[in-house]
Amino acid sequence: MSDEQVYVGSLDQGTTSTRFIIYDRSARSIGSHQVEFTQFCPHAGWVEHDPMEILETVKVCMAKAVDKATADGHNVDGGLKAIGLTNQRETALVWRKSTGHPLYNAIVWMDARTSSICRKLEKELPGGRTHFVETCGLPISTYFSSVKLLWLMENVDAVKEAIEEGDALFGTIDTWLIWNLTGGTAGGLHVTDVSNASRTMLMNLKSLEWDKPTLDTLGICPEILPRIVSNSEIIGEIAKGWPFTGISISGCLGDQHAAMVGQACRKGEAKSTYGTGAFILLNTGEEVVNSTHGLLSTLAFKLGPKAPTNYALEGSIAIAGAAVQWLRDSLEIISSASEIEKLASQVDSTGGVYFVPAFNGLFAPWWRDDARGVCIGITRFTNKAHIARAVLESMAFQVKDVLDSMHKDAGEKGEVKNEKGEFLLRVDGGATVNNLLMQIQADLLGNPVVRPADIETTALGAAYAAGLAVGVWTEDDIFHSGARSSDPTTFHPKLDEELRKKKVDSWCKAVSRTFDLADLSL
Predict the structure, then answer these.
(1) Which of 364, 228, 232, 236 is nearest to 292 (CA)?
(2) Where does the Carbohydrate kinase FGGY N-terminal domain lie (predicted)?
């Protein structure tokens, strides 16, 4: 079969939408479809998804993507070799094995309802907030899946009953999708991959297995947990009732790990994905680097059961593109996300306004779930263009905070620089189409920012992992043979160093104003 007839599918299930992309052998998208789904916020700080609605979006996206590719003359039915899957991490749910029915909505990664559980654990455990860091690399935080599971076990009777009856299955979104895609109640496979498992707080980073002492401490029975597999191996086949029946699912990665593969990040290289949140990962190779500056030690990827494990330092930012959505949907300052660049470009500065989007607290490197959003420096001179520019700057400032911590943790030897001695930040995700945001990012970092021609590297990374497992691509194809964009856009810093420092100092002052605001009266 010629290269033109070989295809790999990628299912990308994000925080606000699902999409399916079909790639040819040259890693070019030849058909795609995207569907948004509902995000529920029943109480302040709570964020949920309907797992059944997510399944429906998957089915629609698969079918529509094939229709589009076929209409353009591609024989996808005859040439599709495998499907990769990537997903929003940490979002968790429990369902009944016998019926396949979710026992509660999926609790989304940014949901903050578990703050009281986290405080309780911090007080009771001898290691406090860092009690589990040595085994899983993660602090106790509302961010991670295990505390969401504890909340479900404590507050949802149906979950407690199903666990007692031995009829409960727990998983992140990848697990839910794979179980349903491979048969559901008729033999569906209950699995997760090492990258998603690494975000639960329950997996031992070195053994890549569920950590029994952690499970015992938290009172979680291992029987409800999925089997852990690598990021690139044949997991199972698509069952009847779905598009692509009989095709292998052979790649699975959490979204940020998939982006690292899509960006071909080798040891010492970093990428930042700008979506609902922003996520910066630095590949540390086969070494687990423990952070002393507020970052997470996590798994980067393991591209095969016998492949070496690559680790990473990660800084997670809860609110990035979501702040633009807030301007659009809640304040109605803009009517579409794309309008923010034009509005913010009407002014050449924020006029002294600083916006910190700590809507549900702050993640890395601050880790303050008592923080709440602030907008300071407002005067009669301030207009909506200043606010829009401050929102864009808030995204870039947060990424700078993380990268500053990363530089301290990794050290000179842990980072790769170009021939000019510059550390390049590779960027991707929907918000990177905003040229003003990318220039602001370069200005605040004082380093170049490199945007690939194809910014959807998350879906591409999942496709690479799936294709690698079935022989469509080799690791050399992905990491060494020009898989990186041949036509990237590089943004170089233009901001004066003294002004950069003043702006960073003002930002840090604004961040400090967000602390200890969670108990403000409604």
Answers:
(1) 364
(2) 7-262
